[in-house]
Design brief:
The structure holds 2 protein chains of 2 kinds. Chain A is mainly α. Helix content of chain A is 73%, strand content 1%. Chain A has one domain. Chain A has a two-stranded antiparallel ribbon. The longest helix of chain A has 32 residues, at 148-179. A two-stranded antiparallel sheet of chain B has the order 1-2. The radius of gyration of chain B is 23 Å and the shape is globular. Chain B starts with 5 loop residues before the first helix and ends in a 29-residue tail after the last helix. Classes of the chains: A mainly alpha, B mainly alpha.
């Protein structure tokens, strides 16, 4: 008997998304607002539906997916951040006579894909989820089709994404060929039985490379700055938050469940990717003049820190990864919402860092929020961004990786420079042309909420969030 | 002991006041900040009076577990108490010093100072390792903004240098902290102070903490951020930097490095003495040739803090008590000296020593107070610094007579640069008409400087008030360090005289 109750969130989103697509097709531009709100309602309903069976049912469909606490933790981050990405688009696409209705629908489908990604326990369902998310992502990146940069971003994302998918698929086929199974447990059993053959190792490396592309970890990060810069800002907000979480969580589950016995084989890859991401993200951001490009490097940098927790291994490491991603999403959404509010006098979006000059005097509240996000992304206490960094490095140190932790911290200091630069531009430079006011109370409330969450008040959440991540990570082992 | 969470109140009051300041007009923000700092000072004095020197080591203890291994736990011993009182005492003076000289973005300025005060108190009062780190590091943010927004011409470079230098130092400490917590399975500072780490690990742990505290203190050769930061910071920023932030370095050594890693510390005594010795001589010489007043006092700070590191690593009672008193005395005196610079800077807008001269004629009140602080900085008996420096030197002498010889040259050199500075500014002929036309101290400036002068004399004449709360804590620390403390080459013993000599030389007294 096939049970569908554990899949309730995905079912809500998939069927609701199809209905919304029809609605969008028939109402056109007039119905855009309604479709957007309905999509938000769907995502919220799916989040609520996570309570109960979807969090505890265990393996489903012969082990294709698993409805466990780990997956529902990921979904509890992914669905709300997808909803925020819809809110972020309010008032954005209307300016250019684009079709705003389908945007929300695409986000909903991407959310379904991500939900499958985080709950996949089989390489085939992993691939299907990833492709569902990616296809929606390619369209979203080029959503402002009259804007050359957006079209370029979409094309670039598509070409490189297709390449990465190919690599991933190739790796999956190698693993299947050498182990005879696609399920994570089967792969793990095969790795446990014997010393991994060359083919299995190749498969492992290729799969990890494909996943690293999705998480934009070095050396598969090249698309990130271009796509983040070119894509419309609400889309960038989305790319930097939910898909990133999905990719990192998916990689975590695959490494732990599927490659557990081969930990020694993948750990060095993850350590390299982590350190390379931290340092490249920190150094390459120096010369940037575009705020979205800079935040792209910041996201590469942050994925590196999350992967330090993965490299540490064990339940503690996985729990640290979950904690890190949860806080990272809040910081990054807040930062991008601030970017969204950077508008020149005519209300057109501006992206240059120089235009932030003297923001603290023209728009003190916005500058204050932005500064909080910058300090938090840099991991400077007393802001909350410090705590997840502490957790991942604790995990690394307890696993005996002292050099990794020291190198990571040095990377954090190097990275601190460019976050400080933003603060410096906002607070210490002379005011430039003031931004036009954006009248959008909901986005303002979200900026406020995210700023409060990463402020020192966030430390009050350590207890509940910590025990939740510990349980979620525990469900993998 | 009372059930009132005094320390939390002490942290919360400035935080709330800072938040209020942001929404107030410039003048209201000034009054809010002054009021809040005075309230805090009042609470601080109460704490001092309520503190029982013979009571338990940790008093006013608060502990709330927030889950996930994070605890809001506060508590102070005598050492922390005195440093908190110093912070609280200097804060209203800083606000007063900024009353007229800061004109742009006053609400933000006051908010930054309030945040600073809260974080500093938190750092001194924290009893949880990570809580300490959060407060310790958090202090960088307001100071970064204070230097960067309200500083002088080179303020941007100075603020970056300050931030990145100290941040780099402290991340290494953080790695060590994580290691300690995973080994000892506790984040409680009192528990860690009694925990015996493996001697081999202690070496590395000491070095990691050293990276942070040596930058903060600052010790030669990682002191180079300090002159830049001081020169560029606004007057009140310099006062807080010299008066409180540097003390965090010394506090770190006395709270963490010495009790937690006694073997590790003992291993590095010669190293610390060499660095401190170089600092005393080298930075004093550098101070001699400065033409910028603030830079001169900044370098003198480095030299004075070297007495602290000398005293601390002598590891005996005199040395430790001396180090604490030097920290308190230097906090007052260098703060006051920066205020003195600020007073004439506000009038002439230059820190060039050569632009002044003969101020004793037109500013007699200023010359008097400046004289008091100059003498205190030199270490004249009867002032605060004399007691501290004397004790620190005695302690050092017990540990190593050669170190004491080098350290003592600092007193001579200190007298040279400070007296010369005073002579060039207050005596001699009046070279510039505008300097000669400057009015004497006004009432506000008297209110800023006179309380510090009173405290300087109090500490110089009756240091017992300041030593009493710390005595038992220093005693506990000395007991903990006893087995590693250096034997010294100068233990004076009374000989039995030539007649009773049995061939051994008992009385090698020099």
């Amino acid at each position: 008997m096939v049970r569908f109750a554990p899949l309730l969130p995905e079912i809500i989103l998939a069927i609701g998304g199809l209905v919304l697509m029809m609605l969008a097709a028939f109402t056109g531009r007039r119905g855009a607002g309604m479709v957007g709100w309905l999509a938000i309602a769907l995502l919220m309903a799916a989040t609520v539906a996570l309570i109960g069976a979807p969090s505890h049912a265990g393996p489903l469909f012969e082990g294709m997916v698993s409805a466990d606490l780990f997956a529902s933790f990921g979904k509890a981050i992914i669905f709300p951040s997808a909803a925020v990405a819809i809110i972020a688009s309010h008032g954005w696409f209307e300016r250019d006579n684009e079709h705003p209705a389908e945007y929300s629908v695409l986000i909903v489908f991407a959310a379904v894909g991500m939900a499958v990604m985080v709950s996949a326990t089989n390489l085939m369902s992993l691939y299907v989820g990833l492709e569902l998310n990616s296809l929606a992502g390619y369209v979203l990146a080029s959503y402002q089709r009259r804007d050359e940069r957006s079209a370029e971003a979409g094309l670039k994302y598509f070409v490189l994404g297709a390449l990465a998918s190919g690599i991933l698929l190739y790796g999956i086929s190698l693993l299947y060929g050498f182990t005879g199974t696609l399920s994570f447990n089967g792969v793990a059993a095969a790795f446990g039985r014997e010393a991994p053959s060359l083919g299995m190792l190749f498969g492992l490396v290729f799969v990890l490379a494909g996943l690293a592309f999705k998480a934009s970890a070095v050396p598969f990060h090249m698309w990130t700055p271009d796509v983040y810069e070119g894509a419309p800002t609400p889309v960038t907000t989305f790319f930097a938050s939910a898909p990133k979480v999905a990719a990192v969580l998916m990689a975590t589950r695959f490494c732990v469940e599927g490659l557990g016995p081969a930990t020694d084989a993948w750990r060095q890859i993850v350590i390299f990717a982590a350190l390379a991401s931290i340092f490249l993200g920190a150094i390459a951001a120096y010369g940037q003049t575009n705020i979205k490009r800079l935040l792209a490097y910041s996201s590469i940098n942050n994925v590196g820190f999350a992967m330090v927790g993965l490299a540490a291994g064990g339940a503690q490491g996985a729990s640290a990864v979950l904690f890190y991603m949860a806080v990272y999403v809040v910081m990054t959404i807040g930062a991008f919402l601030c970017v969204l509010w950077m508008r020149d006098a005519e209300g057109n979006p501006v992206e240059s860092i120089a235009s932030l000059s003297g923001l603290a005097q023209t728009r003190p509240a916005l500058a204050g929020a932005f500064a909080i996000f910058m300090f938090s992304l840099a991991g400077i206490p007393p802001l909350f961004g410090f705590w997840p960094k502490l957790l991942v490095f604790t995990a690394a140190l307890q696993a005996g990786y002292v050099a990794l932790a020291v190198a990571g911290f040095i990377g954090a200091v190097i990275g601190a420079y460019y976050y400080l630069k933003i603060v410096k531009v906002m607070y210490m430079d002379e005011p430039a042309q003031p931004y036009a006011r954006v009248h959008h109370p909901l986005q303002g409330a979200l900026i406020f909420l995210t700023a409060v969450l990463v402020s020192p008040l966030g430390y009050l959440l350590i207890g509940p969030l910590g025990s939740w991540t510990a349980q979620a990570a525990g469900s993998l082992f | 002991m009372t059930g009132v969470p005094w320390l939390t109140i002490l942290i919360a009051v400035p935080l709330l006041a800072g938040a209020l300041c942001l929404f107030a007009s410039a003048n209201v923000a000034r009054w809010i900040a002054l009021l809040a700092t005075l309230v805090c000072l009042e609470i601080g004095i109460d704490l001092w009076l309520m503190f029982n020197p013979d009571g338990p080591q940790w008093q006013f203890v608060e502990h709330v577990a927030l889950g996930g291994g994070f605890n809001w736990s506060l508590g102070i011993d005598g050492i922390a108490l005195m440093l908190i009182v110093l912070t609280l005492f200097l804060m209203p003076i800083c606000i007063g010093a900024s009353w007229r000289s800061i004109e742009k973005r006053v609400p933000e300025y006051m908010a930054a100072f309030m945040l600073m005060e809260a974080l500093m108190i938190g750092a001194f009062a924290a009893q949880d390792l990570f809580l300490f780190y959060i407060f310790f590091e958090g202090g960088l943010i307001p100071m970064f903004l204070i230097i960067g927004i309200w500083g002088g011409a080179e303020r941007i470079k100075a603020s970056y240098k300050f931030f990145l230098y100290t941040f780099f130092g402290s991340v290494l400490m953080l790695v060590a902290m994580i290691y300690m917590v995973s080994v000892a399975q506790t984040t409680s500072i009192p528990a860690l102070m009694a925990y015996d780490f493996a001697p081999r690990a202690q070496t590395w742990l000491f070095l990691a903490f050293f990276a942070s505290f040596a930058v903060k203190l600052p010790m030669w050769p990682v002191h180079t951020w300090l002159p830049d930061a001081h020169v560029q910071a606004p007057t009140a920023g310099s006062v807080i930097l010299a008066g409180v932030l540097l003390k965090l370095g010394g506090y770190g050594f006395i709270r963490f490095s010495l009790p937690m890693f006694p073997e590790g510390s003992a291993q590095f005594i010669p190293f610390m003495f060499v660095l401190s010795g170089v600092a005393v001589v080298y930075t004093s010489l550098v101070a001699l040739v400065q033409s910028d007043m603030k830079k001169l006092i900044a370098y003198s700070s480095v030299a004075h803090m070297a007495f602290v590191s000398f005293g601390l690593f002598a590891m005996n009672r005199q040395g430790l008590e001396g180090a604490m008193l030097v920290m308190l005395g230097h906090g007052l005196v260098s703060g006051a000296l920066f205020l003195c610079v600020g007073v004439i800077y506000d009038r002439l807008h230059t820190r060039e020593i050569g632009r002044y001269g003969g101020l004793a004629d037109n500013m007699p009140g200023y010359a008097l107070l400046f004289m008091v602080f100059t003498m205190a900085s030199v270490g004249l008996p009867g002032t605060s610094n004399f007691v501290g420096e004397f004790l620190a030197l005695v302690g050092t002498y017990h540990a190593s007579s050669w170190a004491a010889v080098v350290a003592t040259t600092g007193i001579i050199l200190g007298a040279a640069y400070m007296l010369w500075l005073y002579w060039r500014i207050c005596f001699g002929t009046q070279r510039n008409a505008d300097a000669a036309a400057m009015p004497d101290l006004n009432a506000r400036e008297w209110w800023l400087l006179a309380p510090i002068a009173a405290a300087v004399f109090w500490m110089g004449i009756y240091p017992e008030s300041f030593l009493r709360p710390m005595r038992n804590d220093i005693g506990r620390l000395t007991a903990r360090l006893e087995h590693v403390a250096p034997a010294g080459d100068s233990r004076l013993k009374l000989g039995r005289g030539a007649i009773h000599s049995d061939g051994h030389d008992h009385g090698a007294t020099h």
